[in-house]
From TrEMBL:
CDD domains: cupin_RmlC-like. This is 2-oxoglutarate and iron-dependent oxygenase JMJD4. It holds the Pfam family Cupin_8. It catalyses: L-lysyl-[protein] + 2-oxoglutarate + O2 = 4-hydroxy-L-lysyl-[protein] + succinate + CO2. The lineage of its organism: Eukaryota, Metazoa, Chordata, Craniata, Vertebrata. InterPro entries: Cupin_8 (IPR041667), JmjC_dom (IPR003347), JMJD6_ArgDemeth/LysHydrox (IPR050910).
Amino acid sequence: MDRATFACSTAFYRDHNSSSQGAFCLPGGHVDFIDKVDSFTYSDFFRDYLIPNHPCIFSAKFTEEWGSRRNWVTWDGKPDFDYLLQKFGEAVVPVANCDVKEYNSNPKEHLPFKEYIKYWKEYIKNGYRSPRGCLYLKDWHLSRAFPEQDVYTTPVYFSSDWLNEYWDSIAVDDYRFVYMGPKGSWTPFHADVFRSYSWSANICGKKKWLLYPAGQEEYLKDHHGNLPFDVTAPALQDKSVYPRYNQSQPPVEIVQEAGEIVFIPSGWHHQVYNLEDTISVNHNWVNGCNVAIMWCFLQDELAAVQREINEWKDPMDDWHLQCQLIMKSCTGIDYKEFYNFLKIIAENRISVLEKGLDDEASAKNTPKAAISTLGMLHAVFDLKRTVKVLTSLSANEDFKKLDLTSLSPPPEALLHHLKAAIDTALL
């Protein structure tokens, strides 16, 4: 931890009496299990898991009050298909075929929810077999489509969520998902969008996770530099194809029971299996603790695009712009949008520091209300981390080659405002 971060975090998180159970996670070893809601604070989570980027598991006690855990599950712990059909039967949902590989992922289609539930029932009845394959409902933006439904409440530990704060502000997208799938459905080897954190809560059912700490994925690449589709495939033992596989450490394995929440650290690649018929809620999120990882990821993505189309650099007048367009089509963001992302996050915190929380914002589930809940020094921590990344972005040669006249305020002015807000808050 750098000195500035240490100074800020120790000033903010003074409560060292309550600590997590167990030791830090070691590759292939122990993962902390957080049992008691009352004795585990946000500052514990920040200090022991967010900053060091370690996984952990929260017990089912943290989700027992959720509407989905009360209403979506039968008395014997199975998905309540009748209730789900009553509430969501007319929705259209994204469904992946786990039995088919397409460009290192599973192909998706959109189906009426009631058709998917009919398939799922028949799949169970036929001994978990179907000529249609194993279909997995994935990445469903249920909260956005049905905001009035009592599904879950985001735990305070995950409330500093810049991704959803930004995308909600521009009303384009979000990174809140529901997953539903039969026993045997699974997700291939991957790391989450923008190398974000993720949390995943089982409403019912059981999952198995195989986690590789950030950096371990380099040993799992084939001789072309490609990651495996299935990290358990026998082909990885072939040294002529995967020359460094034997240097990799064993994965961290987690079996997640109903009601439990798994925290996946930033940049950790993973593969996930549903061991039973399972429903889960998942968020991806970035905050001050891992925004620098996101920025490094974007730089790596742009460099990969530049290598791919390097031969067109001289004859193409707008080569740098084209690289940005290709990167955005692949990742969902380019450098100018990343600037706007940082700007929105910074301005929300500056507003709370300078003006406080007005009655309208405090009465609603708003970003400013969440910022206020975590406190002034957390807002200062966020701004300090934003300054570091924004300073690096502003000095980046690829960023400076873009037309930045549309950015308001200009990067230099935003940086000045940020530093002034920090200085004022710390007086």
